[in-house]
Design goal:
The structure is a single chain. The chain has eight helices and five strands, in the order H-E-H-H-E-E-E-E-H-H-H-H-H. The chain has one domain. The chain is about 50% helix and about 5% strand. The radius of gyration is 19 Å and the shape is globular. By secondary structure, the protein is mainly alpha-helical. The strands form two sheets. The protein has a three-stranded antiparallel sheet with strand order 1-3-2. It has a two-stranded antiparallel ribbon with strand order 4-5.
Length: about 160
């Protein structure tokens, strides 16, 4: 009987480890941009290898953010179930081509804007609306930022021309 209890406890420990593995990483900015997923979590979510995740990051298909301690995290907002949010890649590509800091991209995506009647670009994408409108909004925001027509606090102006990602 003791062997059965010990085996059952091992199964519970294994289950606990699996549960911990799928819980998003904790971060003090989870309320704004997070929660975040690890590379392993994204790989499991999309049913691909970690190497494939890295390849998608390099191609600009997935938004990865580097923390101050060098850890790569992935905002969960870019996923819809077990796939990328429809239109997300197009919007991210628009911002990526201007070398906008990735943290600024994430902040802009979740920030409400008057141009969208107080909703965020991410909310518009989640509602299934045309991503080309969000791409145009990003282009317009970048133009105004480059021409110093935005207040300094605007998310895209923080690092609009930064090469740090």
């Amino acid at each position: 009987m003791v062997g059965c209890v010990r085996d059952a406890l091992l199964d519970i420990d294994e289950l606990a480890q699996r549960m911990i593995a799928v819980v998003s990483l904790l971060s003090p900015i989870n309320d704004q941009i997070g929660p975040f997923c690890s590379s392993e979590q994204v790989a499991r979510l999309l049913g691909i290898s970690r190497q494939a995740v890295n390849g998608r990051v390099k191609r600009g298909a997935i938004l990865a953010l580097r923390t101050a301690d060098g850890v790569w995290v992935y905002p969960a907002f870019q996923f819809d179930g077990r796939r990328l949010l429809t239109g997300f890649t197009y919007v991210f590509a628009e911002l990526r081509q201007h070398e906008v800091n990735r943290w600024a991209v994430a902040a802009w995506l979740v920030s409400p804007t008057a141009a969208l009647d107080g909703t965020s670009p991410l909310e518009v994408l989640r509602a299934g609306k045309n991503s080309s409108a969000i791409c145009q909004l990003a282009r317009d925001a970048l133009k105004r930022c480059i021409n110093n027509q935005f207040p300094v606090r605007h998310a895209l102006c923080v690092c609009a021309c930064s090469t740090r990602h």
